[in-house]
């Protein structure tokens, strides 16, 4: 089928009402080719556009035991995801914990090795990799704290946004002992990275572990201090720093849970996106021992920060540790519950998405590994970038015992791209109403894009109508005895494709989308039509599905 016809289809656009279709798609399972026993792949992860980075601090490479590892996966032509690079430190050290923390933004990736002792014992370091014109990844820098001290754990956390990166060192020295710090680096004209600030809490006692987790959005940084005890011992805190016009990075806010209690570990995980901050408190026991929680803060017009929501899992479990990992991207938050019981599987783990609505944050979806098992730790790490979601399962045994892996999803709830909408009723078949949907996100350069349909006649071939003009109420436009929601007379043109069903009556219509930027923004409508032999449907034994309306976007 020649899909250049999609271009003229984009000429007529129709805004329609209806209800959201399936919002989330399972894109891929990401597993490095050399995954081994106890690699813990998926204990760290990040995503930027069409690239994902995974860390596995238990990996051994180059004959050096326990060096750690990091891998990059990228979306290839046609939409498949594959490993594109294994990142190896040029001076790998035994048990340096390379890959414990990872970050990627555009053409830059950073990998933390917080136990690296090349400067001082346990001082830590971060390796910088840059994508080259030939699409390979080259180590271009190695970062260390300007005031490195032993066992500072520089590189325990790392985050990048544009020309700025923040690196956490939770046991670095500050004015009051080893309370921890964050270090800000700025990219220079020659692509090197220069330390421009050290962030710390001037009145924090030793042991609060500031920088245990770190996040950056623009020129705003959040550092977690999960052992801080302002309100109760080890209740936790998070600190917000912002770059000023003079280049300084002062602290502008300290965030505390409104109901903080002892040993909540608030700030164990932190994430910032614009004016939204989410902090995890994985040991919060308000609803049972170690159930966990996450808190959402929003920046107010007077530049203060206000707690606006406390997020809980849809099913609260003792020792589920909801909030062990958190991520916020715009008005979407994703929270990991690493020790959630799934079915009867202990510590299988899960992750839960929340969307900001009219003044509140509501649970919208949950993610689980497709074959749950004990101790998979699904949700150990997670990251979101404009709808693309990566979730690590650090002790998953699918490839090797505790080898780990990550799952990749696409969620319309986590992107500004319009979600597909299902509307209309169609005409029932012999097995009842037929519901059409998308098999994959509607993105250009997707060889496996297509449509699904329920309750189709078993092992049959039907038809898929695609057009750019819809009739939501529907009519028997062609006198076939079925309700059509694609206006085949006004669409320019109408595509007629094959719909195939299996023995269970589940239909699939392949419709690969080409890599044509001109298609981006096109609003199209699709409906299935089937022929039946198992019952009589006057006058022609036809049925029709309802309608799915979708907008083509770029990956």
Quick synopsis:
The chain is mainly beta and 555 residues long. It has 1 helix and 40 strands. It holds the Pfam family FG-GAP_2.
Structure description:
This protein is an all-beta fold. It is built from 1 helix and 40 strands. The strands form 9 sheets. Strands 1, 30, 31, 32, 33, 36, 37, 38, 39 and 40 form a 10-stranded antiparallel sheet that branches. Strand 13 (181-187) and strand 14 form a beta hairpin. The longest helix has 4 residues, at 6-9. Mean pLDDT is 93; it is low at 1-22.
**Globular, elongated, flat, extended or rod-shaped: what is the shape?**
elongated
Distance between the termini: 22 Å
Number of strand elements: 40
* Mean pLDDT score: 93
Low-pLDDT residue intervals, each spanning 5 or more residues: 1-22
Task: Count structural domains.
Answer: 2
> Would you identify the CATH architecture of the largest domain?
7 Propeller
CATH topology of the largest domain: Methylamine Dehydrogenase, Chain H
Question: Any idea what the CATH superfamily of the largest domain is called?
Answer: Integrin alpha, N-terminal
Taking all Cα atoms into account, the compactness measure Rg is 26 Å
- How much helix, percentage-wise, in residues? under 10%
Structural class label = mainly beta
